[in-house]
Each structure stands twice: as structure tokens, then as C-alpha cells.
Amino acid sequence: MKAGLIGKKLGHTASPAIHEKIFQAMGVSGTYDVLEMPLDSLAENLKRLAQDGYTGCNVTIPYKRDVMPYLTDISREARIIGAVNTIHFTDEGAFGYNTDYGGFGRSLEQAGIGVAGQDCVVLGTGGAARAIIQYLADKNARSITIVSRHPHSKIEFDAFTKKIGASEIDYQSLEMSRGGDVLVNCTPVGMFPRMDGCPVSEACIAAFPAVVDLIYNPKDTELLKTARRHGARTRNGMYMLVAQAVGAEELWTGQKIASSIVEQIAKEMEHLYE
Fold first, then answer.
1. What does the entry list as the binding residues for shikimate (predicted)?
2. Please, are residues 238 and 266 in contact by the beta-carbon 8 Å criterion?
3. Domain containing 261: what range?
4. Which residue in 2, 8, 64, 154 is the catalytic one?
5. Does 100 carry a binding-site annotation?
């Protein structure tokens, strides 16, 4: 099987290593390529990949929206979220999906973090945040609050949050609030190499019994370390990263992959970022 990652500048991505581990666990003979390409050749390259025998590919920023007009059809989650991170090439065409949505769900389930009936706060308004927000809405979170430096500055994002029934506030308002049940960081604050950063204050973090950080490098961000000092249940981004890759492999192969495999690969990958 041939697969790969589409992006503009990919640098040191963890995706090839993760997919190679998935191939081994499934007993599949496959390759996973890094596919850097400019925006103006995106349509042409998608056709070439299909012709060259690729089963599928993942898509990373900044192309998660740009690939959508060139696909035969798009899944419900990807269409509502407005972003595609997985493409499956078949004889019928190229089909788009968003496995960040399911990967986040698997990560929460494995960590024992429930969101139904809970007050959830999401930091950030990027593509990953949209997948997380949609998941929280679909799983019946009691309330969803999105925090950004400039609330209501993105017309399309405003329409998305309004449809869901989420509210938008700034960081000062969050610091003055009473907290909530689940805090999810979808910003890069605290990511390598600026690992001393933290998106919110310790007092704010202490007001949440569950804290999730989508960052996986480093394994333990300042946000998560602070949350654990206050007794919170925590989860970093590695399990979600592996789970969304597994979700892509399941689409490409039609085979279900056991949660134990996801957990094992996540543990192996986490050792690289300790």
C-alpha cells in the first residue's frame, strides 16, 4: 500500500513513523511518503497520486480546506467542520474525511474523560479546534466556550460556532470566570521549542478537573504539569495523533484496528518527546 502526507513545508513530521508502526501491527506491506507541494499544483498532484497507485493520503495545514473542491465527496464530519485531513482514493474517485474528530474521541475515551453534560472550554480557533468543537457538540456537552485573543474576528468561524450554539470570549474573560469541567488547548503555546509557555494562568487551570492539550512535543507541557499538580485528569496530544492516523488506515484498508494497538504505538512515540 502507498500512502503519504500532503503539506506545504512538512519538516520533521511524526506521521511516517506512526504509520510505519501501524503497517507493522496490521501486517501490511506499505510505504508512507512525505509529499510537499505548492498550492498551485494541488489539483494536479492529487490526480497524479491516484494515478500512481496511492491508496490515500493525509492532509496537514495549510491545505485541509484547499483540497476540498477537488474531491468527489466529503464525509459529514469533514463537511461540517470545514476541513479534510484524510483522502481515500478509489475507482469511484477521491473521498475526504476528518479523522481528527474520531481521534479526539478515542483519546478522551481512553483517558476516561467524559464530555456529555459537561461545561467545556476550548482554547484556539484553528482547524483542529473546529474538529474538537464539533465533537463536543455531537457528544452533548452542556456548554462550549471558545477562547481567543480576538473573539468574533472570523466571520466564517462565527457562523460555525453560532450554528453549534457555542460562545466566544477572550482570555481576560476566561481568567475572570469560574472555570468549568473540561479544558482543551488547541493553541501552539507550550510547544517545542518554546516549552516554557502556558496559555492560561495556574488559577485558571486549577478550576478544571480535566485538562487536554493537543500538543505532543513535549510530552508534558506546562499546562499539563500544572493541571496534575491540582489533581486534574490529563491527556496530551500523542494518543489523538496516533488515533487519527489509525482512523485513516481503517478507511484505507477497511480493517478495524484494536485500541490496544493505538495505545501501544502512542506509548512508543511518547518516549521520543520526554
1. 13-15, 60, 85, 100, 216, 244
2. yes
3. 2-97+239-273
4. 64
5. yes
